[in-house]
Amino acid sequence: MRKEEKITYLMMIMDFSINDKQKMIRRITREFVEQYIAPVAEDSDRNSQLNPEVFEMMKKMNFFGVCIPKEYGGAGLHDDTTSFAIIVEEIGRVDASWSITVGVHCSVVAYPIFKFGTEEQKEKFLVPLARGEKLGAFALTEANAGSDASAVETSAVLDGDEWVLNGSKIFATNGGIAKTLIVAAKTGKEKRKGFTAFIVDTETPGFSVGVKEDKLGVRASNTSELVFQDVRVPKENVLGGVGNGFRIVLKILDFGRILIAAQCVGLGQGALESAIKYANEREQFGRKISRFQGIQWKIADMGVAVESARLLTYKAAYLCDHGKPYGLASAMAKLVASEAAMNTTHFAVQVHGGYGLMKAYQVERYFRDAKMGEIYEGTSEIQRMVIASHLLRGAF
Ligand SMILES: Cc1cc2nc3c(=O)[nH]c(=O)nc-3n(C[C@H](O)[C@H](O)[C@H](O)COP(=O)(O)OP(=O)(O)OC[C@H]3O[C@@H](n4cnc5c(N)ncnc54)[C@H](O)[C@@H]3O)c2cc1C
Questions:
Q1: 183 lines ligand 1 (CB under 6 A)
Q2: Are residues 8 and 90 in the same domain?
Q3: Domain holding 290: CATH number?
Q4: Last-in-domain residue among 243, 267, 294
Q5: How far is the CA of 320 from the centre of ligand 1 (A)?
């Protein structure tokens, strides 16, 4: 096969289930990512910093407004989660830090405000989020509330027309650079019904950013502690009603998992492509290493893992866009895609031999980045719990 034919074939595998508009979105995103993100991805990882020029260009591309309707300044893909997944996948193929930055902003901040917010909240918060003038972060996890989200201790007490928030959150993606937060806090004694979600402006007095985490992977993505000391939030910033926070958080996570899955598909795709390229170039024992069956089996397993993960991810997106229950599908997609990303990046390093550990080859970064997929927005153990609980209730 000639080089162009090979690329076309790979694209066909990816594109058989998507429409022309979605194919165009993939092509445009890929061109953008190759031109602007790929050249600076290694530097961003090394400096643990997102590139500000890329940030500006991403605003112009409307990536921050992907799942917001046009009337609020977005790209109008709020009912096309497959396109959103494709965008996150294409960014993740080159730089997982950017895919998680955009993915979190859109899926667990902007989209929930669009879905559960009042008209007033949409007008106030969605426009700057869509334009990327304000970045969003989702603050659920605390030191004693990780997998068990119902153990949240951050409190919100009503005082006149304002809720007063006290407590601290950890590991918030975009936390140190966000301007708009969705914060889960306790507003009552009941484990689940005593929960409320708030939209918090980070300019509010009493709010501060704590520790910025130094991480194994997705190093350019900002992960920070958030501190709330008598932060007064107006009553109208309650998202989805007092006492509905737990239900809303679960729905937010159902949606967010599609994007983590898409990010992992992209990572796996990037690792697969790097492994194929290297295997077709590197010679040992007088021939290309791609001629060895041991390498071919790895390539085959990588391809199967990535494609299976992609299909599950698009299935979850499809169900979401067609108004069907998708919590089971998104948990399955996230579980399979994160394990696919781990396995493919592992194999990609192996195919590269010693060079796979060197900074000069991007698979080293992919390998570190992949681990995050098995942890955030619910660990793999928690995904299995979610999947089992759906299945045991007869959801198949
Ligand atoms: C890079 C990064 C970004 C993140 N971004 C965000 C964010 O934007 N917003 C946010 O709110 N949080 C975020 N998180 C937090 C993330 O969602 C939590 O780390 C995750 O949910 C796990 O919680 P934990 O770390 O406290 O682990 P724990 O809950 O303490 O789990 C430790 C281990 O025990 C296992 N375990 C726990 N309970 C069970 C059980 N019932 N059965 C079987 N095994 C179990 C877990 O699977 C895990 O292996 C982020 C985390 C990371 C690393």
A1: no
A2: yes
A3: 1.20.140.10
A4: 243
A5: 25
Instruction: List the catalytic residues.
Output: 377
Pocket of ligand 1 contains residue 147 by CB under 6 Å: yes
pLDDT of residue 350: 98
Location of structure tokens 């409320």: 196
Say how far apart CA 54 and CA 268 lie, in whole Å.
23
Number of C-beta neighbours around residue 162 at 10 A: 16
Asked if residue 151 and residue 66 are part of one domain, the reply reads no
Q: According to the model, what pLDDT value does residue 192 have?
A: 83
131 touches 73 (CB < 8 A)? yes
Ligand 1: atom nearest CA of 145 is: 26
Q: Are 43 and 95 in contact (CB under 8 A)?
A: no
Ligand 1 centroid vs 396 CA: distance in angstroms? Answer: 27
pLDDT digits (tens, 9 = 90+) for 22-78: 999 999 999 999 999 999 999 999 999 999 999 999 999 999 999 999 999 999 999
Cα torsion 256, 259, 265, 267: sign: negative
DSSP 8-state assignment for residue 148 = -
Domain coverage including residue 184: 137-243
Q: Is the pLDDT of residue 5 over 90?
A: no
Q: Which of 214, 243, 272 represents a domain boundary (last residue)?
A: 243
Q: Which has the closest alpha carbon to 378: 296, 257, 265, 262? A: 257
**Residue where the block lists tokens 């007064």:** 232
Whole-number Å distance, alpha carbon 146 to ligand 1 midpoint, is 5
Number of domains in the chain: 3
Q: Is the pLDDT of residue 17 over 90?
A: no
State if residue 171 touches ligand 1 by the CB under 6 angstroms criterion. Answer: yes
- The per-residue pLDDT for range 287-309, each reduced to its tens digit, is 999 999 999 999 999 999 999 99
Entry pTM: 0.95
